[in-house]
Amino acid sequence: MPSYDIYSQGLDACAANFEQLSPLRFIERTAQVYPEALAVVHEGVRRNWAETYARCRRIAGALSRRGIGQGDTVAILAANIPEMFESHFSVPMTGAVLNAINTRLDPEAVAFILMHGEARVLLVDPEFAELADRAVKIARGREILVVDILDPSFPGGGRAGRLTYDELLAEGDPDFDWHLPDSEWNAISLNYTSGTTGDPKGVVYHHRGAALNALANITSWGMPHHARYLWTLPMFHCNGWCFPWTIAANAGVCVCLRAVRAEPIYRLIRDERVTHFCGAPIVMNMLANAPDELKDFDHPVKAMVAGAPPPASVIAAVEAMGIEITHVYGLTETYGPSVVCAWKGDWDALEAEQRARLKSRQGVRNPALGGLMVADPATLEPVPADGRTMGEIFMRGNIVMKGYLKNPSATERSFRGGWFASGDLGVMHPDGYIELKDRSKDIIISGGENISSIEVEDVLYKHPDVMEAAVVARPDETWGETPCAFVALKPGRALNEEEVIAFCRLNMARYKVPKTVVFGELPKTSTGKIQKFLLRDRARALG
């Protein structure tokens, strides 16, 4: 027996057999192999992959000439337009880090992000020029180059800088000699959490994780080559779940969309032969309840849904239109979708309601995630796989963030025993699929009983008159807390509190039935998540 490892002798990594993983390779290859293939569609703009790659290299070259490089931050405030897509390649080509900012934030929050992320450049869509201008003025002391993206398809809007994107483009070289990062652990992007309980935290992604999750999107979804992807999901949200890089790897088509409304979505699905799109359950619910005359596409379409556990009734309604749903789950800290409800062929024979119920589970780890478990948050002992015992969801692997920017204490709290603690509560089913039950802060404890707000919402969504529903805890002197339901009705429908409560009594255990029902529009984030923290405030204010 040899006393040494024969496979470690004279078999070192070198330039010929090893390079750092990065999604930048995806656009380079696609532009070389499919230069004439359609890459980007936006109103009157149609560009192929050769043109798109050249534009990315020119912007990268221009930024580099202006001193932007390794470790610098380039921020962008933009809708889902071509320049936002290009920035996912041009910025990291310089070695810099892309910070796509939530366009729904207020100027103070944007200013905090610009200062905390130490942005040196800010690219601005005309729709958000006023927001950018106010934020930059608040962020005094930071020297920020503001670059205006002039989008002819957007009427109105202003300017926040003295340089335009096209002028910056003209400064660059389409043959700019970009390089892969020295280490795939280098940061590629910076994404800020919502900050509903204080200042937002900056989540740092690396090149390796971005590349791996981009490829996992293809395998998880079974995406065919040259898929036509519609941007119903904001690119500022977890870098669009890594789909800018996925589209490049897939040699697909990036169909841009400024505003998420039913009419343009259905029009683009029909006219551009869109095959794939992503979104929160609220987007799917909007599409399901749109006028029937809009739903005139005649080809297969797949939708990926995440952001909140989708009610089974919403999944069933969307699939009844001919849109096949894939449910995924993840967090900003896990590059977006890291868990997928992987479909099994023998489930096809089940009734539609049973299939929808299975699809509403979060699922199993995607090909890029190393580990997934539901465990006791104190001991990290996995809970029984019985579909009933609740625990916290933990992940680990290459698509867990580097950590929180300039916040080591928050990073340390999130990483426990070699796992990332999600803060989400769920169960593990006997088949190994997890199902989310609630955020730890959203569990309602009434008379000593734990009530999952998601389970109550799932019943409410089954009512034919209910468009949207959210359930939170309302303080109660007797029970401690009781469920309080906030309900938005479908247009032209009418319900009262007694009718909603009676419906719930027929469909759930009595202790879970909401004691209060409030009707009206529900507050949402820019990505379609219902803002439960605001609803909790309203519930407390009810007295």
UniProtKB/TrEMBL annotation:
InterPro entries documented for this protein: AMP-bd_C, AMP-bd_C_sf, AMP-binding_CS, AMP-dep_synth/lig_dom, ANL_N_sf
Q: Which residue intervals define the domain AMP-dependent synthetase/ligase in the entry?
A: 28-405
Sorted alphabetically, the keyword list is:
Fatty acid metabolism, Ligase, Lipid metabolism
For whether the record's keyword set contains Ligase, the answer is yes
Q: Among its keywords, does the record have Metal-binding?
A: no
Q: Which CDD domains match?
A: ttLC_FACS_AEE21_like
Specify the AMP-binding enzyme C-terminal domain's residue ranges.
Answer: 455-529
Q: What family does the Swiss-Prot or TrEMBL record give for this protein? A: Belongs to the ATP-dependent AMP-binding enzyme family.
User: Which NCBIfam families does this UniProt record tie to the protein?
Assistant: PRK08162.1
Name of the protein described by the UniProt record: Acyl-CoA synthetase
